[in-house]
Every structure is written in structure tokens, then in C-alpha cells.
């Protein structure tokens, strides 16, 4: 330490601490594991009794991200929130979905059917989006390029904050330095605010929900949040952190329930189909989905029916199907066309800023763009990733695998996919990943996510916020970055 107490160890741009692998194993990993277990940076580990947790996979060091890139992503979030909110209210979305439903009847088609049958009938006019826009930093320009815009069940708002705290703790403890001094200076390590900002978003939607107090059965505060969840969710604690903070900060109670048990525990009131929790007789103000984005989440017809039951209810849905479907990959592709995005973004500067984050995305239909995409992918497949209308990881086809995959598929089904240019991002060599107590040190690629929350109706936005950040890192050798699925890990940012 120097006389001001600041670390003397100046960090060069983009540098990692230079501690040895054996030091990491003997000095850092035990501290990292104990801190994670003690502070809830954990996933479930099933002993059958809910009595065991395991340390979530994380990096050992925070990963360097250009401060400018983060600031740019943060700045754009409210505009992206607003854009997707407007799309969810648009006729254009319905027209696009009509076509998409025809080429993907199994999933988009079924969701769209529920949207027409139930969502449109709900008497609730307030809509609520909890979004996350994901980016990679482009190697050449060092600016952000959008991977995808998520409008349903965005994960890690809880654990993201925790991993930032973990890295700050290890730094303050002197574990990133052989002499025991802090390696990073104040303000260089970013701790995501998502754990409180996403909760704040949910609280503002809850605040707008008006309980039916007319017959004096309930008072204005008699409302809860319903978390619709998967059974045996390995990312349980990320969700519990949201639940605990809702209660601690805002006095809002939550109930967790999988699709299959919803109708046992919840019923409609006679007036406006308010959703009543039978046990407590409280109204559900917000339905918060942490499932329902993947075909596998709808295990039988009753799961689909239950989604419709929730959609038609008076509760505010996070998200309803119009918002969820606005996040379809096909919509993301269409928005890269200036003629489309211009319909929703008036401000030419904002439009330019948003468009600068887009890489080329082709449809694979009979349009001239579509034909161009078809030609390019056969000639230079290594430049592309092929994406179906699915969420949640494990569905994309990468690079050299694309031509063979497409050739096996009847041509009329190609329309259900989009073809996206691979974002050329710099890999980081010097970081380490700890997963299940084991250290690996291959080059990693990091994906930056920015959370956003927006509460709105047809004509008015009542709240629109940046809601924190997430950094996920994966081994460069893996195409996908799913943390829970075992491809990647949670990380935090050293901003330079
Ligand atoms: P999902 O909805 O399954 O999360 P994504 O579009 O986020 O699908 O793709 C999954 C992963 O594939 C991303 O997290 C990223 O690691 C990689 N990926 C997707 N698109 C690109 C791209 N254009 N360039 C490079 N990597 C990509
Ligand atoms: Mg993704």
C-alpha cells in the first residue's frame, strides 16, 4: 500500500493478476468456495432433501471489459426496452407471428394460439417486461454487438451481483496479489445492481396493481408475486435472492409454483378473472415466469392450458405472450432492417446507436435477402450461426455444421431459422474458471448482458430503467455459453 491506502500495483489495460496456478489452488479457491457457500453464490445439488448446495461456476478473476463498451450498452438499454415494448403492442408483430406460427407450429404456433385465445382477452392493461440484452465486444471496433434480446425468464439477476461481490472481496482480501495488496483500484471492479434493480422493477409493477377492495374481503396490500418455476430447478437460489429481496426491501410476499400445480393453488375471482391464491386469499399482482420459454417446459397439454389460464387472468404478466413473442429471433432479424426499425424508433440518433449494435442477420426465405443468406452460408459457413425460434441454449447450429443440417431439412422449413453473422470477439487467455472445485485455464469468451425493466400500457410508459448487468464467460472451444447447462460460468467486469 502507498500512503493514501491505494494499491501501488497499477493494472495495465486488460491485464489479469499474475499469481501462479498453485497459489490460486491453495489460496484462492478455498476462499472463493467458502465465500460463495456463505453468501448464496450457489446452485442446487440434489440430495433429495434440499439440504445441499454447490458453488456456482465462476471465474477466478474479473474479466477486463472496455468501460466504453459497458457504458454504451447501459446507455442503450432504455431505448431497447421501449422498442420491444412498442413492438409487443404492434399489429406488425401479429402479422409476423402469423407467418412464423405457420413454419414453427410446434412452439411459436402454440404460443401464438394462446396469445389470440387468452392474452387478448385479459382485462389487465398494464404490461411488464424484464429484459436482458446480450452482447459480445467486437474485436476490431471494441464496441458492443448484440447477440440476442431476451424478453422472458432472464436468468442470473441475483447471482450476477453476488459474483461481483465475490471478486471485490477477493481483491480487498489481497488474494489477487502475491504481497497481499489489492490488485484493482476503487471503481475498477463493477458489482451489478441487478439483485436490487430487477426487484425494484417487480415492485413498481406490483405498485400499479390494484386489488379489488370493493367487497372488503381484501385490502390493497393483499397481493403477492407468483413465481412460475420449473420443478427441481438447479438455478433455484438466483430466484430465491429475488424473492428474499422483494420481501426485505418492499414487504412483498411471493409464492413459487410449477405449471402442474397452478390450478390446485390458484383460482379466478368471478369479477375480471383476478388470480386468487387459495391458501392466503390474496390476489396475484405479478406473474413472474422463470419457465415457459422452451418447448420442454410444456410437458403436457395441461401445461399449455395453464399458460392460457394465467394469460387471461387479471394479474400483470412478466411477460405476457405479446412480450415473450416479441423476443423471437425472427423479430430480432427483422429489426436489423432500417425500414422496420424506423417504424418504432423516431429519433434518428437513437436509431443509429441501436443499429450500430447489430450484425448482419439474414432470413432464410425466398426474399432477395433470404436468397443471399442461403448462398453465403453454403459458401462460407464458418462465418455464421443458424438459429431456430427457440430460447434457453442448445438449439443453435454453428459454422461448418450448418450446410449439412440445412441440406437434411425440407426447404420450406428453412424459413423457421435465421442466419446470423458470427461476432468476432477477442478471447481472454489469462482467466481461470472454477467448476465443481476444478480449475481450467483455456481461453475464454465473455458475453455482457444488460438487464432492463419496463412497465407500460398501450399509450404510456410508467417506468423504464436500466436494471444491472451480467457477464458470462465460456471456454472458447465451446460454441454455447449456458452456465447451468455446463458450458460456461458467471463472471464480473474489471472496467478499463
Ligand atoms: P439462446 O436463446 O439459446 O440463448 P443465443 O442467440 O443467445 O441463443 O445463442 C447462444 C450462444 O451462442 C450465445 O450465448 C453465444 O455464446 C453464441 N452465439 C450466438 N450468436 C452468436 C454470434 N452471432 N456470434 C458469436 N457467438 C454467438
Ligand atoms: Mg442467449
TrEMBL record:
- Give the protein's recorded name: Glutathione synthetase
In this chain, ATP is annotated as bound at: 148, 329, 387-396, 398, 420-423, 447, 474, 480
Signal sequence coordinates: none
Domain named Glutathione synthase substrate-binding: residues: 224-326
Gene Ontology cellular component terms for the protein in this record: cytosol
Which residue stretches, if any, does this entry annotate as coiled coil? none
Query: Which UniProt keywords are given for this protein, alphabetically ordered?
Result: ATP-binding, Glutathione biosynthesis, Ligase, Magnesium, Metal-binding, Nucleotide-binding
Tell me the cofactor note: Binds 1 Mg(2+) ion per subunit.
Catalytic activity, per the record? gamma-L-glutamyl-L-cysteine + glycine + ATP = glutathione + ADP + phosphate + H(+)
Write down the species.
Answer: Arxiozyma heterogenica
Give the record's pathway.
Sulfur metabolism; glutathione biosynthesis; glutathione from L-cysteine and L-glutamate: step 2/2
Tell me its EC number(s), please. Answer: 6.3.2.3
Q: Which cofactors does the annotated protein need, by name?
A: Mg(2+)
Q: Name one GO molecular function term.
A: magnesium ion binding
Annotated substrate binding sites: 132, 239, 472
Amino acid at each position: 500500500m502507498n500512503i493514501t491506502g491505494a494499491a501501488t500495483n497499477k493494472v495495465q489495460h486488460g491485464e489479469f493478476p499474475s499469481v501462479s496456478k498453485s497459489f490460486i489452488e491453495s489460496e484462492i479457491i478455498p476462499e472463493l468456495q467458502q465465500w460463495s457457500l456463505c453468501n448464496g453464490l450457489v446452485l442446487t445439488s440434489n440430495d433429495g432433501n434440499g439440504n445441499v448446495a454447490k458453488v456456482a461456476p465462476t471465474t477466478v478473476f474479473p474479466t477486463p471489459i472496455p468501460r466504453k463498451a459497458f457504458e454504451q450498452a447501459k446507455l442503450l438499454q432504455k431505448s431497447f426496452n421501449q422498442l420491444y415494448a412498442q413492438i409487443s403492442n404492434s399489429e406488425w408483430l401479429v402479422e409476423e407471428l402469423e407467418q412464423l406460427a405457420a413454419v414453427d407450429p410446434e412452439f411459436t404456433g402454440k404460443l401464438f394460439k394462446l396469445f389470440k385465445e387468452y392474452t387478448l382477452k385479459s382485462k389487465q392493461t398494464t404490461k411488464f417486461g424484464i429484459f436482458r440484452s446480450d452482447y459480445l465486444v467486437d474485436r476490431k471496433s471494441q464496441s458492443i454487438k448484440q447477440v440476442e434480446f431476451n424478453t422472458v425468464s432472464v436468468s442470473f439477476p441475483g447471482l450476477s451481483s453476488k459474483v461481483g461481490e465475490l471478486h471485490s472481496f477477493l481483491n480487498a482480501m489481497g488474494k489477487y496479489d502475491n504481497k497481499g495488496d489489492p490488485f484493482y483500484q476503487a471503481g475498477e471492479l463493477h458489482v451489478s445492481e441487478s439483485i436490487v434493480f430487477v426487484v425494484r422493477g417487480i415492485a413498481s409493477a406490483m405498485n400499479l396493481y390494484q386489488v379489488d377492495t370493493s367487497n372488503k374481503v381484501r385490502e390493497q396490500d393483499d397481493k403477492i408475486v407468483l413465481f412460475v418455476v420449473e420443478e427441481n430447478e438447479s438455478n433455484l437460489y438466483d430466484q430465491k435472492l429475488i424473492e428474499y429481496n422483494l420481501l426485505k426491501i418492499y414487504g412483498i410476499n411471493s409464492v413459487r409454483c410449477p405449471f402442474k400445480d397452478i390450478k390446485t393453488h390458484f383460482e379466478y375471482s368471478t369479477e375480471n378473472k383476478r388470480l386468487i391464491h387459495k391458501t392466503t386469499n390474496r390476489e396475484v399482482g405479478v406473474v413472474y415466469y422463470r419457465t415457459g420459454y422452451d418447448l420442454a417446459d410444456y410437458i403436457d397439454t395441461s401445461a399449455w392450458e395453464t399458460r392460457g389460464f394465467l394469460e387471461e387472468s387479471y394479474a400483470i404478466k412478466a411477460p405476457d405472450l405479446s412480450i415473450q413473442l416479441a423476443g423471437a429471433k425472427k423479430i430480432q432479424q427483422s429489426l436489423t432492417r432500417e425500414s422496420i426499425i424506423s417504424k418504432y424508433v423516431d429519433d434518428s440518433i437513437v436509431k443509429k446507436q441501436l443499429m450500430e449494435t447489430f450484425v448482419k442477420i439474414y432470413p432464410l426465405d425466398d426474399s432477395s435477402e433470404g436468397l443471399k443468406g442461403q448462398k453465403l452460408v453454403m459458401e462460407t459457413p464458418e462465418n455464421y450461426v443458424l438459429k431456430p425460434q427457440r430460447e434457453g441454449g442448445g438449439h443453435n447450429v454453428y459454422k461448418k455444421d450448418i450446410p449439412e443440417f440445412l441440406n437434411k431439412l425440407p426447404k420450406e422449413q428453412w424459413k423457421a431459422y435465421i442466419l446470423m453473422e458470427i461476432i468476432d470477439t477477442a478471447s481472454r487467455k489469462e482467466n481461470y474458471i472454477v467448476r465443481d472445485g476444478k480449475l481450467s485455464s483455456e481461453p475464454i469468451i465473455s458475453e455482457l448482458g444488460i438487464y432492463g425493466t419496463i412497465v407500460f400500457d398501450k399509450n404510456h410508459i410508467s417506468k423504464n430503467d436500466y436494471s444491472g448487468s451480467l457477464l458470462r464467460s465460456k471456454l472458447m472451444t465451446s460454441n454455447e455459453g449456458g452456465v447451468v447447462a455446463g458450458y460456461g460460468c458467471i463472471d464480473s467486469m474489471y472496467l478499463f
